[in-house]
Each structure stands twice: as C-alpha cells, then as structure tokens.
C-alpha cells in the first residue's frame, strides 16, 4: 500500500518539551512541533501519524506498523538513540526512508550522546537545529524521489 503518510516518532521525555531544560531544548512544546509537522506535510499532500512514548517497545510497535501504511519515518529517538538496538532493528526492518532528528547538537554534548545506534540506518541526520529540524525532515521526505 502506498498511502502518502509519514510516521513522526518521538521518544522518552520529549512529552516534556516546553518545560524540560529549555536552555537545551527550547520552549516549543511537542504539541506545537506535531502541529507544525502536520501542517507542513499537508502542504505536500502527506498525512502524519504522530507517536510519542516513554517505552521502548511501544516505539518498536509503532515503527513496525509503519511498514504497512507509511512512506517515511521522522524519528527523534531521544535517549534511546544512544542505547537501543531494538529501535535500530525495527527501523531497518521497516524498509522506509528514515530521518533522525535531534533538537540539540548531540556531538557538542556529553560523550555518551555522541553515538546514535539509529544514525547508521537513517538516510539523513539533523542535529542542533531545534524544532526547525523536524521541518527540514518533512521537506526532505516530501522532495525525495521515491
Ligand atoms: C535529544 C538528545 C538526546 O541525547 C536526549 O537524550 C534527548 C533529546 C535531542 O532532541 O536533542 O532526550 O534526542
């Protein structure tokens, strides 16, 4: 099935955006990010399914489901970026273009954030652009030749 739908996945603690360490993550809420992504995607004829979970298995389930009815995945795996082989394997199995987004530049932060298990299975990695990173991700997937 080739529905023009994107999966937007946000991992643990990103439900706290807006109040969580605003000096690092800014003051934009997750609801505002999800709304902006949906609006921008709609301009290019895409629907968006937005999922946020603090639970690794729920994120794996959402990624597995995307294989059925999505054409691309935008994911901020948050702390699971640095720990989760399960999320990486789910993304590989989905066989969809993946854009990995981080609000902060993980490479200028603590050493344990410098490695992401997800990056090797992402077509594009965007880090440090704040909420605009999600917009760049939508633009990339909308303009990508499938
Ligand atoms: C993050 C960076 C991660 O290291 C961190 O665990 C997060 C958010 C980001 O968007 O900058 O929760 O993915």
UniProtKB/TrEMBL annotation:
Its EC number is 4.2.1.10. The active site is at residues 25, 102. The keyword Lyase applies. The keyword Transcription regulation does not apply. Pathway: Metabolic intermediate biosynthesis; chorismate biosynthesis; chorismate from D-erythrose 4-phosphate and phosphoenolpyruvate: step 3/7. The record marks 20 as: Transition state stabilizer. It catalyses: 3-dehydroquinate = 3-dehydroshikimate + H2O. It holds the Pfam family DHquinase_II. One of its GO terms (biological process) is quinate catabolic process. InterPro entries: DHquinase_II (IPR001874), DHquinase_II_CS (IPR018509), DHquinase_II_sf (IPR036441). It comes from the Bacteria. GO terms for molecular function: 3-dehydroquinate dehydratase activity. Substrate binds at residues 76, 82, 89, 103-104, 113. Keywords: Amino-acid biosynthesis, Aromatic amino acid biosynthesis, Lyase. Belongs to the type-II 3-dehydroquinase family. Homododecamer. HAMAP family: AroQ. Catalyzes a trans-dehydration via an enolate intermediate. This is 3-dehydroquinate dehydratase. It comes from Mycolicibacterium peregrinum. The gene is aroQ.
């Amino acid at each position: 099935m080739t529905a023009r739908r994107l999966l937007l996945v946000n991992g643990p603690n990103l439900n706290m955006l807006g109040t969580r360490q605003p000096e690092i993550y800014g003051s934009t809420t997750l609801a505002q990010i999800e709304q902006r992504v949906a609006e921008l995607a709609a301009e290019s004829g895409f629907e968006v399914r937005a999922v946020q979970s603090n639970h690794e298995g729920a994120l794996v389930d959402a990624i597995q489901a995307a294989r059925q009815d999505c054409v691309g995945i935008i994911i901020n795996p948050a702390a699971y970026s640095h720990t989760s082989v399960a999320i990486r394997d789910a993304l590989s199995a989905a066989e969809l273009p993946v854009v990995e987004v981080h609000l902060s530049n993980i490479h200028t932060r603590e050493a344990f954030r410098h490695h992401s298990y997800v990056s090797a299975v992402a077509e594009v990695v965007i880090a440090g652009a704040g909420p605009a990173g999600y917009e760049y991700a939508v633009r990339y997937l909308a303009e990508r030749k499938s």
